Amino acid sequence: xxxxxxxxxxxMYSYAMAIREFFDSLDEVCPLWPRIHFQARCYEEWxxxxxxxxxxxxxxxxxxxxxxxxxxxxxxxxxxxxxTSFMFSTAKxxxxxxxxLLLTYY
Length: 106
Known about the structure:
The chain is mostly helical. It has one domain. It contains four helices and two strands; from the N terminus they run E-E-H-H-H-H. The protein has helices at 15-24, 35-57, 63-77, 85-105; strands spanning 3-5, 11-13. The model has no long low-confidence stretch (mean pLDDT 82).
C-alpha cells in the first residue's frame, strides 16, 4: 500500500499512487509483441491514466463509485462503433482490475 503525508502531516493512502505502482509492475511494452497485444497494453495505459486523473480531480469523493462510473461509460462506448470497440473494452477490463485493487485495499 502506498501512503503519503498531506499538508497537515497526516498519513494518507493514495489510491492513484497504488494503482500506478501495481500497473508499473506489469511487463513493459515490447515492440516484438503481436500488434493486438501492443495495442491492448497501450489502451490499458490510457485507461489507467484516465482513472488516475478522475480520482485526482475528485479526491474529495469516494474512489469506488468513480471507477464504477468509468467502467459503465467504457462499456457503453464499446458498443457505439466497431472500430473503437476494442479500445473501450480494454479500458473497461482495465478499470475492472483497478476496481478489484481498490476493493482489496478499501
